[in-house]
Amino acid sequence: MDKKLFAEQMGKLGIVFDREITGPLAELYFDDLKQLTNAQMVQAVTKWRHEGEWFPRPSQLLDMIVTSTQASGEAWQHVLKELRDSANAKLSPAELQAVNEIGGIESLSRMDFGQLEFKGKEFRAAYNPDRLEEVKERISLDPEMKALGDLADTKRLGRR
């Protein structure tokens, strides 16, 4: 996790819950939360600001992270709902990618309940909503990665 983003998010918690963020407190929290990605830190702090009643402990912020298992289950439920009108299905890029990996929306729309139950397991294994956002986040934060992204865009558009 980026230390600047961490400091911003902790500052937001301090403002909302009227708590001074001292250097030692910030160091302890960063040590406990450093494994989080920037997106996960923002997610945890935002969710806690909406749901929490007091300044959180690190473990409470970690509890705010939606696990990939939870996210994939919710995404599969959304896919099943959209199968009712598969020709006009509105899926997120991550949902669409996972659906295509397991056979496509049209194939799923022709399946019975038992087949869909099996495909749901395949979907959960294929679904990874953070891949694209994580890459975008890395590109935006790392100047070398941003330069590579700009170069790729230039080549794709036929410019040099």
What ranges have pLDDT less than 50 throughout 5 or more consecutive residues?
A: none
SSE order in H/E notation?
HHHHHHHHHH
**Structural class based on helices, strands and sheet pairing:** mainly alpha
- The portion of residues assigned to helices is over 70%
Radius of gyration, in Å, reads 20 Å
Strand content: under 5%
Report the major sheet.
none
Output mean pLDDT.
84
Count up the domains: 2
- Dominant shape: extended
Number of helices: 10
- How many beta-strand segments? 0
How would you describe this structure to a colleague?
By secondary structure, this protein is an all-alpha fold. It folds into two domains: 3-63; 68-126, no CATH class. Helices cover 71% and strands 0% of the residues. It is built from ten helices and no strands. It has helices spanning 3-16, 23-33, 38-51, 58-63, 68-82, 93-101, 105-109, 113-126, 130-141, 143-156. The chain is extended. The mean pLDDT is 84.
Care to give the gist of this entry?
The chain is an all-alpha fold. It has helices spanning 3-16, 23-33, 38-51, 58-63, 68-82, 93-101, 105-109, 113-126, 130-141, 143-156. It starts with a helix and ends with a helix.
Secondary-structure blueprint of this entry?
Blueprint: H1 3-16, H2 23-33, H3 38-51, H4 58-63, H5 68-82, H6 93-101, H7 105-109, H8 113-126, H9 130-141, H10 143-156
Helix pairs in contact: 1-3, 5-8, 6-8, 9-10
Key structural traits:
mainly alpha; 2 domains; 160 residues
